[in-house]
Amino acid sequence: MSLRIPRGFARRHPAYQEIMEGVRPTLKWLKPADFLPIASVEARQEDPIVIPAGTFVGIVQRTGDAIASGTYALTGYNPGYATYKMVPAASQAYKLEYTTRDTDTTFYTPGVINIDGGAVVAAAGTSVSYVGSIATGGGVKPMGIVYNDIYASWLGAGYTNYDRQPNIGLLMRDQIIQVPCLNTNEWDIQPGDLVMVDGWDAATLKWDPGATPSTVNAVGRLRKWTAGTVSTNTTEAFVQLRRFQEHIVGRCIRKVLVASYSSASANASLASTVGSINSSHVNFEFRPGGRVQTVPGLGLQGSGTQGIPGHLLAARNDGNGKFWALEIAVSTY
User: Cα–Cα distance between 293 and 289 in angstroms, integer?
Assistant: First the structure.
């Protein structure tokens, strides 16, 4: 047989292959973890959303960053599994907050999987288990930010002919995004600041997507890198700086005052306040959009929102009646 092989024509296989571009890769093997609480239910198809758009996400690791306590059986990183488990990113391990949305069987039977033991969620409450590493403080390292709402991965398991998101895409770099400021640490970010995912200094950190954002409930959100403090011990400081570096997601290039309304309730969202304000409370940048007549309550940019774009209506009152947005040059590597 060797005499039949044409000399010099054997197929050469270089150890290299390009598979996709890296700005917004579409990842067939990435699925949201089935133990994530429900953030909201999409009104039209009544499908549960577990990770809202605009959340920085990562993968639950098997070695070093495994689920550190509890008895949930399936870890996220294992070449033997067909998928990787995606969860919100944070620079600290965090717990999950289950609510009545997770025990409601209206939209799914038998219910959301509980990270504590792998059974369905029987009652509202905070998990015992953590997502991310406690021992090393590694949290969940950010891969990118989701630009679509992410729906529960168990939809396809419960309904074999229904798979709403067969592929999930992430924004990883080379784009400028505009996101509303939701808590103290995001209000603290200024143009030029290097930003990382939040959570590193929280004594207790949790993921409760349906609750009011705060520094405790800050999973998947931002904090400026220079806010981090490190040990005076040289060795410990190196370890902590290395951890911070792993969680950098970009740089702030602009901070925008969206609206100012001194009578706004403490920590109120702009969505709940927009019905009480007029164009004089809105940044000049957005006022022209208010000339378009829209029906109040639909959330469409126009007269119903005083010209404020819908993606900024989640902004929260900073305590001084001001609602801010950040423009971030995203780069997770």
Answer: 9
